[in-house]
Design a protein that fits this description.
The structure holds 2 protein chains of 2 kinds.
Chain A lengths: L1 H10 L1 H8 L19 H15 L4 H7 L2 H12 L26 H9 L23 E10 L6 H7 L3 E3 L6 E6 L4 E6 L3 E7 L2 H17 L7 E13 L6 H7 L4 E2 L8 E5 L4 E5 L4 E7 L2 H17 L4
Antiparallel strand pairs in A: 1-5, 1-6, 2-3, 3-4, 4-5, 6-10, 7-8, 8-9, 9-10
Helix pairs in contact in A: 3-4
Chain B lengths: L7 H12 L8 H11 L7 H29 L3 E2 L1 H7 L4 H24 L1 H9 L7 H13 L4 H7 L5 H15 L3 H11 L7 H7 L8 E2 L1 H29 L13 H15 L4 H4 L3 H12 L6 H4 L1 H4 L8
Parallel strand pairs in B: 1-2
Helix pairs in contact in B: 1-3, 2-3, 2-10, 2-12, 3-4, 3-12, 4-7, 4-12, 5-6, 5-7, 12-15
Classes of the chains: A alpha+beta, B mainly alpha.
Pfam families (chain A): TBP
GO biological process, one term (chain A): DNA-templated transcription initiation
InterPro entries (chain A): TBP (IPR000814), TBP_CS (IPR030491), TBP_dom_sf (IPR012295), TBP_eukaryotic (IPR033710)
């Protein structure tokens, strides 16, 4: 329950504050830690945006929209590392907060970070927080790599393994497929392997192990070193049409929209470093993540923005 | 100086008479859609579209011929991106816009490849130096012709493209008033381009009868230039139309930015009268006036200042 976490936070203000702003000296003056570590605009921007979703309608958003330079600076501040909306409290190792917080979606965490650290005021939020979007992006594809750490005879593999293709004139790797999980692997003679098509990290690892076992069974001393997720792709649907022309105008620094070339708007989010493809229909594709949390974080970041550009 | 200083209008006249000898491919319908997406009325006039098609066609054919000449100078066997970039070297803004387009194309294929699993494999099959191919070509070429360093400075330059900005603002204004169905139609129109109909485009330009043909990237750039020409024509025609509209009273009205006036004028007119769709559409006369002004030689030295003017054709796209 939030009670415990708030109490913890108040008593550990110094460490908390210094976690959020590593560049600051940990202040001993407890009473002055009144969110000053948060740049003003950032604080306002986020709470105001979340406020309007709940209360005042879109007027404020138009105001915000009308000042692209301000938005820019907010996002730049985001990129500087202090991003309150998305400060994942479970990230820091010596975080005094109980780990239950790490399972909550970020905006709710951020609301707790805005709340009075200075005093033990009522723990119900005074400013209503926007519910997190309620939409969870589905992972569509994971690309991972692993090192089998031995030289491989691709011709032998192609001859003896089922579902393997090898066309040395076209490409210098064996392409192998398995059905469960439905994935494809590119196996190189150096022993390196790329695995694509899995829908989750665990499945990708499982598939990679299966491929490794196939190689092992063919007589190679295959190991399983340095398994690493290289890219994750997620997608979801916000279920309302979006006015991409205004989005590209207001977020010029981050977006490109050339409908003659590609029907979606390409949004390069800085923190986290994710690329989003946003379509008029409301479908959103997120790519470039190394961890699942980045996809969720990116989506929670973009959702209020998309809502403000909803096609009425 | 070349005496056959054919103004674009007279070349338009000659080409249209030549066209009577059966040109089967016509982009008139697509052009109408494109003009709508660029700021014209919901149903652009057919005559306007025909005129625009004529102008674009003539300009592109001329551009191709000049590119072929440059190509021959180099001793190359195909017209490639470098030749077109060379022709555009004089106008930095337009060149920059073209470069941005090329880089965006590279970037988009990189991203889409990462998403589609099949594409990922396809890419591995083909030469992996495909990444940022267009960017490399452009950078290498500009590096080779750049004497003063201005061209290379363009890559670092981060100035906002005013024309592009204006177009974005216009699109935003246009879409603000639309309902979902109209907006869907608008989005579809925006997705139209010459590059989507590559083979029809090639026929339209009559590439097969040329000695030196353009390669794939050159065709991409030509499709882009064709689209830019249409966009420029619409931009200019809208400006002309706004100029023609009588405005009572305000002596400084002509000094205020075009988009500002357009916005206010249109909101007044829609409030005042039931909209006569025809009068909102761009008329051929607007286009002709726009071309006339664009090609108008001003000043005593201007006939000698531009290579393109010497040839009598002022290109809208470069």
């Amino acid at each position: 329950m939030p009670y415990d976490s708030y109490l913890h936070m108040s008593s550990n203000q110094e460490t908390f504050a210094s976690h959020l702003d590593p560049s600051k000296e940990s202040s001993t003056d407890v009473s002055s830690v009144d969110l000053s570590f948060l740049p003003d605009e950032l604080n306002q921007e986020n709470t105001e945006q979340t406020l309007t979703e709940g209360k005042q309608g879109v007027e404020r958003n138009h105001e915000i929209q009308g000042d692209p330079s301000r938005l820019q600076s907010v996002s730049e501040k985001n990129s500087n590392g202090i991003c309150t909306d998305n400060f994942n409290l479970s990230n820091s190792g010596s975080n005094p907060l109980p780990t239950e917080n790490s399972t909550l979606p970020s905006p709710e965490n951020s609301s707790s970070s805005f709340f009075p650290l200075t005093s033990m005021t009522p723990l119900m939020p005074v400013t209503p927080v926007s519910e997190s979007s309620g939409i969870v992006p589905q992972l569509q594809n994971i690309v991972s790599t692993v090192n089998l750490a031995c030289k491989l005879d691709l011709k032998k593999i192609a001859l003896h393994a089922k579902n393997a293709e090898y066309n040395p004139k076209r490409f210098a790797a064996v392409i192998m497929r398995i059905r469960e999980p439905r994935t494809t692997a590119l196996i190189f003679s150096s022993g390196k392997m790329v695995c694509t098509g899995a829908k989750s990290e665990e499945l990708s690892r499982l598939a990679a192990r299966k491929f490794a076992r196939v190689v092992q069974k063919l007589g190679f001393p295959a190991r399983f070193l340095d398994f690493k997720i290289q890219n994750m792709v997620g997608s979801c649907d916000v279920r309302f049409p979006i006015r991409l022309e205004s989005l590209v105008l207001t977020h010029q620094q981050f977006s490109s929209y050339e409908p003659e070339l590609f029907p979606g708007l390409i949004y390069r989010m800085v923190k986290p470093r994710i690329v989003l493809l946003i379509f008029v229909s409301g479908k959103v594709v997120l790519t470039g993540a190394k961890e699942r949390s980045e996809i969720y974080e990116a989506f929670e970041n973009i959702y209020p923005i998309l809502k403000s550009f909803k096609k009425a | 100086m070349n005496n056959t200083a054919a103004s674009p209008m007279s070349t338009v006249a000659t080409s249209s008479s030549g066209r009577a000898t059966g040109k089967s491919t016509s982009f008139t319908l697509e052009l109408q859609s494109m003009m709508f997406s660029l700021g014209d009325a919901r149903r652009p006039l057919h005559e306007t579209a025909v005129l625009v098609e004529d102008i674009v066609h003539t300009q592109l054919i001329n551009l191709l011929q000049q590119a072929a000449e440059v190509s021959q100078l180099r001793g190359a066997r195909v017209i490639s991106a470098e030749d077109l970039l060379f022709l555009m070297r004089k106008d930095k803004k337009k060149l920059k816009r073209l470069l941005k387009y090329m880089f965006f194309r590279d970037y988009k294929s990189k991203i889409v490849k990462g998403i589609e699993e099949d594409d990922l494999l396809e890419d591995k099959f083909s030469n992996s130096s495909n990444v940022n191919k267009r960017q490399k070509i452009a950078q290498d070429f500009l590096h080779s012709i750049d004497q003063t360093g201005e061209l290379l400075a363009m890559f670092e330059d981060d100035e906002i493209d005013d024309v592009k900005q204006e177009r974005m603002e216009r699109a935003e204004r246009q879409t603000r008033m639309m309902d979902t169905a109209q907006y869907a139609e608008f989005c579809e129109s925006r997705q139209l381009s010459f590059s989507k109909k590559a083979s029809k485009f090639r026929d339209w330009l009559d590439c097969s009868s040329m000695e030196i043909k353009p390669n794939v990237i050159a065709m991409e750039i030509l499709a882009y230039l064709a689209y830019e020409t249409v966009a420029q024509l619409v931009d200019l025609a809208l400006l002309v139309r706004q100029d023609m509209a009588p405005k009572a009273g305000d002596p400084f009205s002509h000094a205020i930015s075009a988009t500002f006036i357009q916005y206010h004028a249109s909101s007044e007119s829609t409030a005042a009268c039931g909209i006569e769709a025809q009068s909102d559409a761009i008329q051929p006369s607007h286009i002709r006036e726009a071309i006339r002004r664009y090609g108008h030689k001003i000043g005593p030295v201007s006939p000698f200042t531009s290579a393109y003017r010497r040839n009598g054709m002022t290109f809208l796209a470069c």
